[in-house]
Amino acid sequence: MTKGNSELDALIVGAGPTGLALATQLQSFGTCFRIIDRLRDRTHESRALAVQARTIELLQMLGVGERLVARGNTSARLKVHLEGRAAAAVTLGDIGAADTRFPFILFVSQAETEAVLNDYLTASGVRIERGQELVSFEREDDGLRCVVQRADGQQECVWTRFLIGCDGAHSAVRKQSGIGFEGGTYPQNFALGDVEADGPLEANAINSFAGSGGVAMFFPLGRPTTWRVIAMAADTQTEPQRSSSGEIVSDLKLSELQALVEPPTVSTVRLRDPAWLTRFHLHHRQTENYRSGNVFLAGDAAHIHSPVGAQGMNTGIQDAWNLGWKLGLAARGLADNRLLDTYEAERWPVGQFLLRYTDRIFSTFTRAMSGGRLATWARRVVVPQVVPHVFGSRWVRRAAFAFVSELGIRYRRSPAVVEGEPRQRGGPHPGDRLPDAEVLANGRSSYLQQELAGPHLALLLCGDSHQRDARELDRLRERYGPVLKTYCLRPFGAAGSLVDEKGHAFARLGVRDTAQYLVRPDGYIAFRSAGRTFESLDQYLSDWYGPVR
Questions:
Q1: How many domains does one find in the chain?
Q2: Contact assessment for residue 261 and residue 229, using Cβ atoms and an 8 Å cutoff
Q3: Residues 468 and 424 reside in one and the same domain
Q4: pLDDT digits (tens, 9 = 90+) for 479-503
Q5: What is the three-class DSSP state of 79?
Q6: Peptide bond into 435 cis (omega under 30)
Q7: What is the pLDDT of residues 140-172, one digit of tens each?
Q8: Are 38 and 150 found together in one domain?
Q9: How many CA atoms lie within 13 Å of 260's alpha carbon, on the beta-carbon side?
Q10: pTM above 0.70?
């Protein structure tokens, strides 16, 4: 066994979307880390299909969100077929989500998402160490001693302060840490294919077929094929075969997928030219904890659930964004170690909520799609009458989009978010996502979220800066310089680096006169106040970030 050539702040195990996203955050904070993955190459299959609005906002902080959008499809229509008949066509995009640049679901292959993150990390000088596997680790007082097996079969001893398991549902980090993974498996058997298809499919729309106890969903993929089809059989079969490493061994044939598609589509859709075929079962599980000492779990290593809402990969990326900046500051000694506890406090309830509600929706859906006489009657008679009215409601669409897009996630109960004095009335609360709006930045058109993005806490001062105590502000900047960066947002007509030309930013922030918003590196509000002085803010910063140690 060879000795590691350096001591690390963090070792990331797993280079899927979650691990790659975490690596981007650690890199931006100058953290000393390595990222390893047992696979010798990144994912080239589509796997996860949808990227939600909140995830694109986070990726745009790196300047790659728009790049990913250009690779995908922003379909906003759902066409429903029941028992062989077109039952409803619903527009999903018109939901009035004005406070985001990305008011849509982006359909794009996971391979494309990983490629964008890979390219960003490579350009930043980060090497992803593939063909390397975590063998074991032992805890020490101030870190962990890990054994890593390299691609050449040699083992290496690596010391790290933090170990993060982003290594999927069969996580070696989770198993070795002893953290429980409670839940179960749905009995339904599913098949998936990236294919070309001929039949009554509306281009650039989600096409759903249900009938005869089966379900087939066609998603507009674009690359590597036009369609992603997911089919559910009426009967249940055995658990898919797995390799010794836990990967599904797929022997699915195109003819078998075609046989699953024919009952719900009444044999009107013909599949051809497959790029990827596989079988799978769905699980619903969550770990007891997301942290055990200096070991952290994120993404599928911490939670897996039904794909209802297409939120699995997105939740993992957002886990990484929440954890990354906290590890980055803690590794540099710029934050109290209590900040690391807030990762589980904030993200575990998100995983629990997602697991609970996707389970309820999925269970209701599978009962409704069963082959029973009552379910068949409901599909033929009731659903075509109800669906257009339900999705015709603007309130329903807004609520559904807030859930699916993950823009509605908030951390108001987190111990690390505070309402300052005097209290701000209206607008987003501490723990809420910072809404986006067009602004002028040094005379050029930009967006508020983009301007505040970076490896720092962003203090956004709204209103007339001449009414503030400049000396007190200078003291704050001097005391918290490595952590804090200040921005001034002025109303239209005033001079300044950030100007709210259209008045949207002030309206969405609920600002009538002056206000202070402290925005975290993950785009959530840590603190707010309506005051012109900084005593309350100084107290908050000293509690969590202290005088720089």
A1: 3
A2: yes
A3: yes
A4: 998 899 999 999 876 666 899 999 9
A5: strand
A6: no
A7: 988 999 999 998 889 999 999 999 999 998 999
A8: yes
A9: 27
A10: yes
